[in-house]
Structure formats: structure tokens, C-alpha cells
Amino acid sequence: MWARDTLARGGRDAPGRGEFGRRRARHWERRGRAVGRAMPVVMEAKALISSTEEWRALRSHVEAIDKTHLRDLIRDEARCDALALEYDGLYCDFARQRVTTETMEKLYDLARAAGVREKVNAMFNGEAINSTENRAVLHVATRAPKDKVINVDGRNVVPDVHDVLEKIKEFSERVRNGEWIGETGKPLKDVVAIGIGGSFLGPLFVHTALRTNPEAAVGASGRQLRFLANVDPVDVARSLNGLDPETTLVIVVSKTFTTAETMLNARTVRAWIRASLGENAVQKHMVAISTNLKLVKEFGIDPDNAFAFWDWVGGRYSVCSAVGMLPLSLQYGYDTMEKFLEGAWSMDQHFANAPFEENLPVTLGMLSVWNVSFLGCPARAILPYCQALAKLAPHIQQVAMESNGKGVAIDGTPLDYDTGEIDFGEPGTNGQHSFYQLIHQGRTIPCDFIGIVKSQQSVYLKGEIVSNHDELMCNFFAQADALAVGKSAVELRSENVPDALIPHKTFSGNRPSLSIMLPELNAYTTGQLLSLYEHRVAVQGFVWGINSFDQWGVELGKVLASRVRATMNDKRTKGETMSGGEGYNPSTTRLLNRYLAGKAK
Ligand code: F6P
């Protein structure tokens, strides 16, 4: 159907061509020598993607698309046939995107021009594509089957992954069957996972997805899993409320083991355990997940009770490592969580091997590039018609926005186009009664509708026309068409709508969305969905030519908070307020004084 992947065969527009490419290549060669690594393929930077013929072709193509309307496009059967993909039961219809088959060809050409195939290969081959941190990006290795070989710096990391998985399996089984007991001899039935950002959002998303899955729920019977992320004392109080330290296991989850909020919360909860069960109780009631085993030990957790992961797993991509696998195996059983890994790996394989034209993450990634960079849509709504996916949007918010919210290309060149989008979302139908007004008649926000064929739960009240799930899904189908087709003034007039109301009741339509359908929501399909979104984000970053795997943008706020922490401690110790000579601007000085004066010492 589409032109094939020419770059995979070493075709036109090979990276590094021309003087610009040669200069960049020299730069990366020097840098490679400086960090003692060979120059990764992906680092052979070229001019910004916006200077390519393929980008310009899409720019010009916008004019043609602007002459179309989804209300007409959606009636074309051949187009609808072409604009849908299915892989391993996951079905995606993108006929409601503002594209034609010609647009798709141009988008796949752009992907080739950006070297997406080479960059994907470099990622799966363990090259240090996170160049600012000189790290490989191998979350895919955390779900690789035992017999796979994935090398980082010449060493196969898959056995390490499986050693940790084996340890998780054994430990979670011992806790679940009561063999591992607490300080007072009681089994540990409740788990509190302390962590923030990537050490929280992914596990919360998966936990929320599985809670009402009948199979998973059986494994969770009599057990509770809670998360403590925010340093806000309110979150501390809520997450410990009603828990008994005697029957609680605490997991400190932190890649670095230095994150201020997590470490303060960990100390607070350690004090809660010690106060009730004595100093030694930490050994039985606290375990850790980290790449920094030295700090785990210093904290007082036995390194034997620590579950490792590696610097080649980014925090926001770590849900398949011990970060998600330990708390979720404790809650649902290891066997259930193994299926989650299998689902993610299935999508990984599809991403790595399928031609672009059949490739779900590549297609969805390219559609996002189209919406952001060519149609000028700055946001994306993630709208699962499934309450169990309530935490998908918050998780993808971090995955996408921390990855692709960048202002410079991978080689430091300032970009002349925006990257990333503002992700938000709520499950349907709740969102319909909240922000959909803006989506229908205000800004144009491409929407991801996600529907499930067979619900985790069945509720059908005798005498009703449809079951609860059917009612939910009626909205899933209707909303996508309402956005695409809209409602014209002519239609409104034919319904005798008064003239004065016609502008208010008109729906312009032509608002893009895509519809993803899963046969059911279980551990396996949750894994597929996770991997789909992760790789879609990577594709966008690969095309925009940025480093999607670092997050320097979160650093400045942390540094300034440390300074405020020192000032606050000083002022509280001395019982003083701010004089203005501390080096803060007048606004911050005033705000701090107001806080210091109001807070009980
Ligand atoms: O502040 C952002 C961040 O660095 C994320 O990237 C990360 O997921 C989170 O903090 C938590 O970090 P850690 O797991 O090291 O505690």
C-alpha cells in the first residue's frame, strides 16, 4: 500500500550527508572519544528535520488538507479501510485524523528521512542514545524473554533482568503465602510503595487497570496496595490511614535514592514503623527498589532486601522493571504480572520489526507529529472509556511531556518548531461533563478514544435498553463522530432552531481523533497499551530530533528548592523573618515572610 522503508535499505537521505552532516559527525566523533564510547548511529546528527524536503512537502500539503472536511473524508470506504491497523488484538482506527492516504505516505517518508528505523535499531541494540547522560535506553530489555540477547557495552543484560525477576517472584510468593512475616510474627498483607514521578505513576496506572479485572482480583484478595508520592503531609496521612505497621510492608522506590520528597517520606514512614515495632523492624518491614544500592544500605535497608534496576532504564519507562513488578506482584501474584511483561514485549516486537505502514507506534507517533507540527495543535486528550484506565493519562503525561518537552535538538541546536504536546485526560463519560465543551466548540485538541470490547465487570439492570458497559461504549462511538462530523447551521435550521441560537449550537466538526479498541483489559493488554504509548512518544522524539530520554528541565526547580530549604531552616532556627538581604527577589521575600509568620514553629 505505502512506499517501503527506503532508509532501512540504506536509501536516500542517509544520515550525515553534506557539509552540515560532516561537521556534526566530527563533533560526535570528538565527543565519543571524550566519553570513551564509539559514536552511536543515532548521534550522526544532521540539519534540523524542518530543513528536509520531506518536512517541506508536508508543510505544502497542509493547504490541500485544509480544503477537506472530516465529515466528507469519513464517508470514503477505501480511505477507512486504509486508515486502520490491528496487531495482536489491538485495533486502531485513525480514519478520523485529518489525513488522506497521501498524507500518510508523506508522514512515513518523513519518518524515513528522520532515520526513525536506525534510531529504533540503535535503541534496541543498547546504544547510548540518551547522549546527554551517556546512557542506553533499554526499557524493552526489562520485558525481554530469557533467551534474548541485548547487549549494553558488550554485555548481555537479559540475564540480569531475569535474576531480579526471579528474586521478585520468590520474595512476592514468600510474602503472599505468609512465609515472610513481620516483626511480631504476623503476615504482611498491606503494601505502601513510596516513590514519585516514574517511580509511582506507571505502577499506579497498572494497579488501577487491574484492580477490577476478575482474574487479577482473585490474586489480590485480602491484600491492599497503596502509594505515597507527594511529600504533602496530607498524602502521608491518607496513605497510612488505617494501616497497621505490624502487617504492612513498605517499599521505597527511587532510581537515584536521592529524590528529596521520596527520601523524606521514607524517613517519616521508617519512624512510623520504628515507633510501633522497634528499631530492628525495618529489616522485615522495609525493602527498596533502586539503582543506588549503596544509599539503600546507608538508609538502613538490608541490601539483600533491595531489588536492583539499571541506569539504562529511564524512571518514566521503568514500570516493567522492579519498580512496577515488585509492588504489583505482591498485590496480584507474579504469574499475573508476567503476562503484563508479555503484552509489552509483544508490542515491542511489532514496533521493532513491522514496516512503518503497518506499525502502530510509528503510525500513531507520526500522526502526533502531524497534529503538533503541521496542524498546530498543542495538546492531546487521552480519553479511555474505561474507568480502570483512569490513571493512563497521568502516566502518559509524564512519559510524553518529560520526554518530548524540549527546546533544542539532540546536538544542542535550538529548534525552530515546537515539540511535545500538552497531555491530559479523564475517563469517559466523566470528561464529557467536564472539558468536552472546549474540545467540541473551542480549541482543536486531537483525542485518543480508548474502548474495551468486554468490560471487566458486567452490570445490566433488567428493563434497561442497554447494559452499563453498552451505554458507556455508545458514548465512545458517538463522541468521535460528533467531533469529526459536527453539526451545521443548515441542519439546525431544518430542526427549527431559532436563528439567535444557531451560532451557539453549531459544531464545526473536522476535529481529529483516533479510536483504539482492546478486546478486554487485563495484564497482557495493559502491557500492550503501555508499550504502544511509550514507543509512540519515542517516534515523535526521533522525528523531532531531540533527546527524549533526559529531563534536565526538572533540575532548576529542585536546586532552587534546596536553597529555600536552607533559608527556611536558618530563619526558623533563629526565629527570624526575611530581611530582604537574603538574595531573593522582593516578591519571593514577601511570600516567604507571609508563610514564616503564619506557620506555627
Ligand atoms: O523529577 C523528575 C524525576 O527525576 C523523574 O524523571 C523520575 O521519575 C522522578 O524524578 C523520581 O526519581 P527517582 O526514582 O530517582 O526517585
Explain what the structure shows.
- The protein has 601 residues and is α/β, with parallel strands linked by helices.
- The chain contains 24 helices and 13 strands.
- The chain has helices at 18-34, 53-66, 70-73, 77-82, 101-113, 116-124, 158-176, 201-210, 214-219, 233-240, 260-277, 282-285, 293-299, 322-332, 334-353, 360-374, 392-404, 436-441, 468-485, 489-494, 502-505, 523-544, 555-574, 586-598, and strands at residues 84-87, 90-93, 151-152, 155-156, 190-194, 224-228, 248-253, 286-290, 306-308, 379-385, 422-424, 447-454, 513-520.
- The strands form three sheets. The chain has a six-stranded mixed β-sheet with strand order 1-2-13-12-10-11, sandwiched between helices. Strands 6-5-7-8-9 form a five-stranded parallel β-sheet, with helices on both faces.
- Strand 8 (286-290), helix 13 (293-299) and strand 9 form a beta-alpha-beta unit.
- Helix 8 runs parallel beside helix 14 (322-332) and helix 8 packs antiparallel against helix 17 (392-404).
- The chain binds 6-O-phosphono-beta-D-fructofuranose (F6P).
- Residues 196-199, 254-256, 259, 262, 315-316, 402, 551, 554 line the site of 6-O-phosphono-beta-D-fructofuranose (F6P).
- 6-O-phosphono-beta-D-fructofuranose (F6P) binds at residues 196-199, 254-256, 259, 262, 315-316, 402, 551, 554.
